[in-house]
Amino acid sequence: MDYCLGGGDGAAAIWSAPPDIDLDGDGVFDGVRMDLDGDGLFDDALGDTDGDQSADFAAVDGDDDGLPEAISGDDGAGGWTLSGAAPLRWFGIDGGQHSGLPADVDGDGVGERLLDTDRDGQADRAVRADGAAGYVDTDGDGRWDLELTDDDGDGAADAVRSAPGVAPRTGRPGEGLGDP
Known about the structure:
Blueprint (H helix, E strand, L loop, with lengths): L1 E5 L5 E5 L14 E4 L9 E4 L9 E4 L9 E5 L5 E2 L7 E3 L5 E3 L12 E4 L9 E4 L4 E4 L9 E4 L9 E4 L7 E2 L9
Antiparallel strand pairs: 1-2, 3-4, 4-5, 5-6, 6-7, 8-9, 10-11, 11-12, 12-13, 13-14, 14-15
């Protein structure tokens, strides 16, 4: 089975190893045991669900109880979703629903990194690649409610305002924006 791993610095390596674990219980090895979370145990795995001999999902056992807490799947567009079942859905500022990558939430031509913190398949956080801005869906309706900006580049939000198309609210982090 082939798989590609990177260290977060943009470099990646392609590896190949024979499957050594049966992840779906059908009696056929379809995964490679690994230490993806760096705990020194081979309790995580990369698996091949479609039989093409390439890894298309990862299972990570973060608390070492033998059960994966995080399962990520290749969404077919170069990104990985937590659900592993379908591409992550997201709304643009224009109100249109989209799926797949790249995700240009605000329509500025620069893709945002999407996060699905409640694992419902709908993005609820979007962060610009340069980290200078992000969007938050605070009520789970799929629409961006707040825009956060990091004006000084220190990685912390310096200003919070209503996302475009939402009733105006402005303030600084921690001020409690209240009702519009």
